Amino acid sequence: MVQAMSLEGGGPAPNGNPNGSYQGTFTDAPAVITSTEPTPGTNFAITLKDKVIAITGANRGIGLGIAEVCLANNAACIYSLDLMEPGEEFATLAKLHLGKLKYRHMDVTNEVSVKAAVDGIVESEGAIHGMVCNAGMTKHQSALDFSMAEVEQLFRLNVFGVWNCATAAARAFIALGIKGSIVFTASMTSYRPNRAAPSAPYGGTKAAVRNMAHTLAMEWAPHGIRVNSISPGFVRTAMTYFVDKQPDWELKMKYYGGMPRLALPQELGGAYVYLLSEGASYTTGIDIPIAGVVGAW
User: Fold this and answer.
1) Active site residues per annotation
2) According to the CATH classification, is domain 45-296 in 3.40.50.300?
3) In a 3-state reduction of DSSP, which class is residue 104?
4) Half-sphere exposure of 236 (CA within 13 A, CB side)
5) Closest Cα to residue 185, out of 131, 223, 126, 148?
6) Percent of the chain topping pLDDT 90
7) CA 134 to chain CA centroid, nearest Å
8) pLDDT tens across 41-94, in order?
9) Which positions are tagged coiled coil (predicted)?
10) pLDDT at 91
11) Which of 66, 105, 261, 266 has its CA at a distance of 20 to 30 angstroms from the CA of residue 89?
12) Where do the domains of the chain lie?
């Protein structure tokens, strides 16, 4: 199961500390944002320069692919917040980006664990600019074969976990006076059933996530906080290894059209980079479908 900060422009922290460290606590009076317009001198290039980004479930799979693309686009630091320990893939990427890819143990379903992880990032880096709520799990089987415990597990991780991470990030952004970005990993199953690998509870969790992104975007817009989601189609991960091994896969692709393959996790990354960047400063409350085989759904 996957559970899968320098400041903008390198300036001082919101409390005026010249070394960029945040000395206050989130119980202090929140910083006041007088305008949600871009900060004067904003770099509108699609880049994550000087950005500290947290990605849940980034020790492998889609999360690690997102981390790789964020680092390729000059992110100052990426934190993987994950329940499982990092593996060989994570270690290889970390060696390529010395000091820029870090790991913190965190359980997205535990509110205390999430808050401690976000506080720890702020303490270490002086700020946090983006949160990617990506950790999740799936289980594909007929609806009548699900136990209530299995359904509850899916909702606890995929929905409640996103809620915990989004609200913790928003509180940090408000306390620091940062116009941060939050991106949810939803799914094309939030729009319609996955006929190749059905899962009614999973689709329900992702529909909830997509709606939550739109609602939080509306609520947090006055703080300059942007909330968006991305809905991937079939992506090649440890959880989807079986999809294109089915005997009728090629026939389905021929009949429905679209790109007849699964995406690499890295092929999703550009959309996350855009939504996390200042180039998307007026983009909030949207979902971006990324599904080259969308016709197969």
Assistant:
1) 187, 202, 206
2) no
3) strand
4) 10
5) 131
6) 64
7) 4
8) 776 779 999 999 999 999 999 999 999 999 999 999 999 999 999 999 999 999
9) none
10) 96
11) 261
12) 45-296
